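Section 5: illustrative case.
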């Protein structure tokens, strides 16, 4: 690339010393720069559209089949073709809805087996949250502690913040006998 730029520079200098037309100099500069860029700078064509993450390979095949059957139905005007199209269309719609909601649920619902997934680490929440049985100077009963660990893998996770919020609640709220009482004491 540097070599090409130096060649362009030398060519332009020789053209300016020979009193060439400015339009010719510009044209030489532009074409040689474009040629150098196309040769030396890697480029990749971006996809025009990204497919949603819930669409699987099988669904894509069904969609293509549906589109082919639609074209066939439009050309032939045959009852059998339109029935085939309708059944495949129904299958595609059901599959898309099912896979979409499965994808949404996988994002929204917490993982099973009480495991917290955080940035590639699977942390078992029950082993990390320790309820205190005794009141001390810094903690009271009903509070939770996060044990220290050598690597700070939980630094950006959600539950240290939620533990702080739980521990900040009044003692009467934490020791509520039922869920309704807990909610009522929270709204006070």
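Designed sequence:
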């Amino acid at each position: 690339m540097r070599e090409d730029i130096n060649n362009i520079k030398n060519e332009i200098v020789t053209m300016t010393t020979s009193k060439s037309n400015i339009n010719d100099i510009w044209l030489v500069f532009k074409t040689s720069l474009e040629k150098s860029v196309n040769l030396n700078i890697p480029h990749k064509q971006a996809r025009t559209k990204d497919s949603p993450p819930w669409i699987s390979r099988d669904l894509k095949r069904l969609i293509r089949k549906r589109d082919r059957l639609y074209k066939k139905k439009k050309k032939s005007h045959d009852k059998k073709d339109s029935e085939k199209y309708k059944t495949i269309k129904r299958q595609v719609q059901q599959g898309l809805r099912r896979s979409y909601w499965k994808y949404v649920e996988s994002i929204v619902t917490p993982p099973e087996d009480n495991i917290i997934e955080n940035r590639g680490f699977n942390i078992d929440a029950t082993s990390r949250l320790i309820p205190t049985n005794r009141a001390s100077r810094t903690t009271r009963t009903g509070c939770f502690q996060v044990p220290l660990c050598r690597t700070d893998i939980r630094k950006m996770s959600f539950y240290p913040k939620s533990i702080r919020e739980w521990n900040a609640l009044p003692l009467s709220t934490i020791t509520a006998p039922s869920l309704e009482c807990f909610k009522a004491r929270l709204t006070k």
